[in-house]
Amino acid sequence: MIHTSETMYKYLRPDKKFPHVWCAGCGIGIVMGALVRAIERTGFTKDEIVLVSGIGCSGRMSTYLDFNTLHTTHGRALSFATGIKLANPELNIIVVMGDGDATAIGGNHLIHTCRRNIDLTALIINNNIYGMTGGQYSPTTPMECKASTAQYGTIEKPFDICKLVEACGASFVARSTTYHAKMLDAMLSRAIDKKGFSVVEALSQCPVQYGRRNKKGSAVDMMMWYKDNSLSNPAFKKIPPGEVGEQFPVGILVDLDEPDYLERYSQIVKKAGGDRL
Amino acid sequence: MIHTSETMYKYLRPDKKFPHVWCAGCGIGIVMGALVRAIERTGFTKDEIVLVSGIGCSGRMSTYLDFNTLHTTHGRALSFATGIKLANPELNIIVVMGDGDATAIGGNHLIHTCRRNIDLTALIINNNIYGMTGGQYSPTTPMECKASTAQYGTIEKPFDICKLVEACGASFVARSTTYHAKMLDAMLSRAIDKKGFSVVEALSQCPVQYGRRNKKGSAVDMMMWYKDNSLSNPAFKKIPPGEVGEQFPVGILVDLDEPDYLERYSQIVKKAGGDRL
Amino acid sequence: MKRHKDLLLHGNEACAMGALAAGMRLFAGYPITPSTEIAEFLSVELPKVGGTFIQMEDEISSMGAIIGASLAGVKSMTATSGPGFSLMQENLGFAAMAEIPCVLVNVMRGGPSTGMPTRPSQGDVMQSRWGTHGAHPIIVLSPQSVLECYTLTIHAFNLAEKYRSPVIMLMDGIVGHMWENVQLPEKIEVIDRPEPSVPPDWYNPYDNLPGGEIVPLVPFGEGYRYHVTGMVHDKSGYPTLIHEEVEQCLDKLIYKIKNNLHDIIRIEEYMLEDADICIVAHGSVARSAREAVNIARNEGLKVGLLRPITLWPFPRFHLENISKKVKLFVVPEMNYGQVYGEVLKSCPKRAVRVTRVDGELVTPAQIMEKIEGAAL
Amino acid sequence: MKRHKDLLLHGNEACAMGALAAGMRLFAGYPITPSTEIAEFLSVELPKVGGTFIQMEDEISSMGAIIGASLAGVKSMTATSGPGFSLMQENLGFAAMAEIPCVLVNVMRGGPSTGMPTRPSQGDVMQSRWGTHGAHPIIVLSPQSVLECYTLTIHAFNLAEKYRSPVIMLMDGIVGHMWENVQLPEKIEVIDRPEPSVPPDWYNPYDNLPGGEIVPLVPFGEGYRYHVTGMVHDKSGYPTLIHEEVEQCLDKLIYKIKNNLHDIIRIEEYMLEDADICIVAHGSVARSAREAVNIARNEGLKVGLLRPITLWPFPRFHLENISKKVKLFVVPEMNYGQVYGEVLKSCPKRAVRVTRVDGELVTPAQIMEKIEGAAL
Amino acid sequence: MKQKNDDPIHIFSRWCKKCGICIAICPKNVLESGTAGYPYAARPKDCIMCGLCDIHCPDYAITVKKNSDIKEAEHEET
Amino acid sequence: MKQKNDDPIHIFSRWCKKCGICIAICPKNVLESGTAGYPYAARPKDCIMCGLCDIHCPDYAITVKKNSDIKEAEHEET
Amino acid sequence: MTQHHLCLSGSGGQGLILGGALLAHAAVRDGKNVTMTSSYGPEARGGASRSNLIISDNPIDYPIPEKMDIVLAMNQESCNKFVPELKDDGILIVDSTLVIHHPPIKHYSIPFTKLATKAGVVIIANVIALGSIIALTDIVRPVSLKEALKERMRADLLPINEKALKIGLREGTKLKKNIDEYYTY
Amino acid sequence: MTQHHLCLSGSGGQGLILGGALLAHAAVRDGKNVTMTSSYGPEARGGASRSNLIISDNPIDYPIPEKMDIVLAMNQESCNKFVPELKDDGILIVDSTLVIHHPPIKHYSIPFTKLATKAGVVIIANVIALGSIIALTDIVRPVSLKEALKERMRADLLPINEKALKIGLREGTKLKKNIDEYYTY
Ligand SMILES: Cc1ncc(C[n+]2csc(CCOP(=O)(O)OP(=O)(O)O)c2C)c(N)n1
Ligand SMILES: Cc1ncc(C[n+]2csc(CCOP(=O)(O)OP(=O)(O)O)c2C)c(N)n1
Ligand code: SF4
Ligand code: SF4
Ligand code: SF4
Ligand code: SF4
After folding, report:
1. What is the complex's ipTM, to 2 decimals?
2. Which of these, A43, B89, D228, H74, could form a disulfide with H95 (CB 3.0-4.6 Å)?
3. Of E12, E17, E51, the CB nearest to B1
4. Does the beta-carbon distance from D57 to A112 stay under 8 Å?
């Protein structure tokens, strides 16, 4: 057992920014704990880790952790991260994004990073809403939910983030939840160790902007909902279509072995007769 | 049999812009012929059709045809089209895009239009290259191909456009080629008649920017390659994975029955007690 | 004044209400502080009047969608703040080039970059004029009060339709996020898109009519088939590279604004008749300035205020007229001096600025300091 | 001059070669006419020197990637034209705010909007200064020749590193697309990122050092862990809303440029000593202007040329000095008068413009016409 | 390159870009490349009116029809 | 809300936001909500040291450990 | 005195923005001019959220109150933060349930939160506070605030809020009368 | 005369831009100053693509030739389009294979395309034309153009292009000598 709080103190930035900005019961803090445990487990030093984040509640994570941290523009975290990785392949880059950040404004960068198989770890914190700006619906808000811009209920089919990135060619895809916080850190350490583009979707309660409006109860209730509706992937696959309802699979969903972009690029350098630093 | 050239004369704009700007042997002209035949078959009047296009060789199509035509900014055709459709649901909107236009800079709009199921017909002319700007690789250029920005060969996995839009929820997805010009017009008329977001991918030779660099031979050779490597979808599915090689399925790949965005939006209007014009 | 008949409105809400009153029936946007309330309000109200609200995937597509809607004949709007405004620049340029009426609201927050999302600013004044490539003329309005958030939004739609141009409501974060009592005007003028005066075959959507008359934009689907492009085009809308056509196309964009400056430019003058010092201020800062004028007058200083309500085209000629009478211009702004730069163009030697960028409104005291410093 | 030792280079090619010479080792871009040759050239050449070329999905991500690369310690660049430049504005503002050195090449084509992709222009002069929200200072260079495409690109990287700022190479389509003989300098100055002068624990990446010294940006991964954000930040890089810190953060962006104007601004003067009329022109138009000066001098007219090589910060003080001596400024441009607007700020009553927007270079004859008109 | 009036194949060479697609696609080998590279109906009698050259010409420069053709076609299709 | 020094559960209430997750997640029902809403270990003896409250607290305000704990953990995990 | 400058402050969830809007609304019903600005966004989630009001008989130019006539502090952090903005003769009103360290100045303490909890729901503490402010200062007429409640509140929440207003008025009135009892230095 | 203004024109595929670059390159080898601009993009695909050159002993300011000393027209459309830019005493050189309607001015006609086809590949017509231009005008030294070919051409294409240059020079020289035979009005 890694003790989260004890471990956290090693990684939190030593200034007066605590308690953090996230609301009471918000799952992002749990996810941040899982991330830190995962990094601790991989054994990388703080200097070897770069944490890139987008803009949003989730995006604030980069402020708190004592790595090389970059808080980018909304939706563009993967582009910045791509530049860092290509410039210095030695660095381990984790990209933290909200669901809106990653799949609304940032959707294009997400699908192309999958396609290129850039060796980054994307941690998408999916709270089914735009938290930071006050609860507008996001591309992952389920149908017929309420949001500050959907008082009559949403009418757009949500993305299944894991399916989307799988279709676009991500090397490693996993999903966990704040209820499954231990599984989450296991997935994350696998993802960080993985060569190639990995995506971990962390379902995370936003009790304030999503939960309250949609009568999902307290943070605790929302976590219990994750518990009740999640299944392992093999179990999930056995459910006859049509009976799936709100259930969803957690765990590793995709794990491919393909050369990543940099491996392929080094071939180019060779062909050109160049020398890669 | 609809005579293309005869039919074309009814739809081409009566000015001095012919022969058109496309290179000798370029498939875009064949695709435009198929589109006109498809529209002719649907029976819509010219006034009922809006042709929206992006920027690129393909995007030039809107200049030539005597509909309500809109030549947008690069990659954004679907956004403009969405606005038109929501403002006037009576109009039939066809959105012509190149592969770069639709899946590189415009990738995000494509996946979100799929998700929302806006009742538009997207015609993506896939020539595996950025034609207009002189042959840079696009997100659909196959691996290890040459392009003006990939003299050593491309190293990025290409998108399978049909798979991508299927994963994102498009209602109707079909693929054809310039060799299968008749099938192409059949697919297109189905797509235009379809309620919901339809995508037709038209594989189209660019003998100048893609073919020449990659030793694909003449326009004729490239069309024959389409002939030789295409299969019906059922036949394609029977090939054991690993033996697929360069083969690809043509025909209708997805055909779902789901309410489109406007149908759902009219529910919202009802809930709000409003009246939709 | 029967103030108890007033409404208490939030600036963003008043702007959205103005849009509805002007007949706006399609809003496409992407949330961003401090503009989001406009979208939120309209997501509730538009369906009630059969209009369309859509939250797009980003600001680029939002701008695209409102251009499309306008081409289909529906008045349309988007609202954003700095980062989104930057992303809209390419399509904003398209709207200007293709002469598509639409309204874009920018509720300014502290910049640059992500800056200070919850703090007001006037940092996008120059961007609203020059933000897109290959500059084009544009109309930009700046409200100073919640009431003006309402009335100027209506005006914005009217100008958009009249001049076939995108119009920008440039609201500072104070005005947009303030609550204030307002008495909505009982009668408002609403300009709708005029009918075409020629049959389809004669219609040239980009014609240069004698006297600078502007060709009405006929909605798609009404039998007037034509081509719309962001490329330089001839009078029928087709791309052209012929020198004379190129010049006509681009000149027209300039002249349709320039020839109508008297109609487009609105300013407010306050105590300027006998003034020695003229404060030039817009938006919420104009309120500080008005208070400063009152204080100064109490002290016996001859100070007045010129408030550009239309920021662009900039009221340069008004300024030049005033410059003949006054000795000094004082230009307070919530930025490093953007309107100040414009004032310089008329009176380089006689202008001073009061700048504030820390996310607070310029105070009357700050303005007074400059005035008193100059008066000595 | 042994011209036969010269190279024949294309402007875009020279720019790319300059970048390589300056040590640029990561290029991220998206093709667009007329800048594409830069990407094409570098896609071949970068791998040869172990550098990275990547074609991104759009211009937004291209700009993001070069910022990331620079943070990782690699000199980086992107190249685009108008529409892409508009899309880069948001991230360009980020680079300015976070003080990340990088170089952005904009080969200007005719605008607005899609405009005239294959025709040259100088339409983005103002956008290069004001295109992003919540304006920030920026350095913009304008080459007049293929040789300068090379030398100024090197200079751009040097300025970027020295002032921790994005630098824009604003090339007009003529200069970018011209072939010309050039003699590459044998020795060039290359400024690399300085080492930090303090150990990690003492390092504040956004400190205000006494005397305006600029804190070296330490690449990620070298033991100096810190935070980078586009929000207004304190000296250690964390978001702040404390008034004094906000002001310090924003003022520093201004002052690091303002305090170094003498170092940053480059101009060229030609025959100005005794001139009555001063032409102000940059880029390829400066070549027309120089020819016009020669013609005028032949006719006995005292005409000279001021060529801003650094467009922004604009050489206002040079202009003001000159304005004490000359009677008239003539400002020819391939736009409606953008540099002209800046000249107005110094001498509103004594400046005339020569504009051309049809996609052709201003001719010496056009300039002469204005000069002769004025001389009468 | 001369065409008899009763030939079913009409080639409008002002629009033709000499890409050769029509020649290659004809299942009956009716067309051939002329001296300037323009296609012409070398064996018009062999034409089975399948229209493949017509729908595959990227430049709408080739039309296959008899006098009565259009009306028949309409009947067939609607 | 008092904690005895030998309790394995340490709550740092300055960071606690009183969300109640720790209380709900504890399989042994060790924690309860105190009067000001802060959790406290009502039944510390029942604690089985599973650490669930610790890893699920969004604010890192709760730590479960004995003196020897950290070293053991490291051994276990690596 | 024709202008009142007010600051209602507390933590994010305490409804100070709604409170400000209600007060402003009531002032409008009284025929006054009003401006109100408030903090928002993630900063307003934490300990010190606020609404600033000007209520005036005359048109209001500069819309931001600078020196406060009245500061309501619903928690300790906002009390610490905003008391310095008070005029020398300004009135500080604190929620004594949550403000523990009284600043060394004249102030009224009322346990708004405790009263609200007693009345059933903690969220009406803001309206109780409004009632007390009105009772203590006559800044708007009670009937106008009642109207404001009616016009701005969801129907199902109206009764409890009307009750809150009553409680607030009562406590405020008590305090005004028994000044010695509550009025502390 | 220290400045030569040239226009090489033809249709998109005829290699006029490469041709211009070769000529410019040769001029640089001769120690001259050169500027060259050319059409590009989709407009250059059609019938009238061009390179414009200035070759000069002195530094070149204004880089665009205005009145041409030499116009090469490799097809009819460009001939029609660019002849008006010729100086009164300028030299027009046309590819007689493709330029059918001679403009009513002095010009040299040489069947570049036919010569190229005869030599094996049509694409070397541009270099043949360069050879003839040089022979007719002495604008650059033949040896410099040969060098330019060497430095700019892919090795496998060099021999055929060197051959093309020779053919061009030969035809040009013939023409210069037998002026009556070719020189038509
Ligand atoms: C270009 C741009 N558009 C919009 C915004 C406003 N904005 C900030 S965060 C955000 C969305 C937050 O939602 P999500 O990404 O799901 O993250 P969460 O806050 O829920 O963690 C938005 C729209 C912005 N900062 N920049
Ligand atoms: C914002 C922007 N970026 C880049 C360009 C340049 N550009 C024009 S067309 C094009 C790509 C064309 O490729 P594709 O979409 O595949 O169409 P094709 O020309 O092959 O038909 C590009 C990159 C542009 N016009 N606007
Ligand atoms: S708004 Fe939602 S996501 Fe954001 S901090 Fe609060 S609970 Fe978390
Ligand atoms: S470049 Fe390619 S796609 Fe474009 S017109 Fe030519 S052949 Fe067609
Ligand atoms: S297919 Fe058309 S363009 Fe091609 S050769 Fe035949 S007629 Fe000509
Ligand atoms: S989980 Fe953490 S923040 Fe929540 S009540 Fe328990 S200790 Fe407090």
Report:
1. 0.96
2. H74
3. E51
4. yes
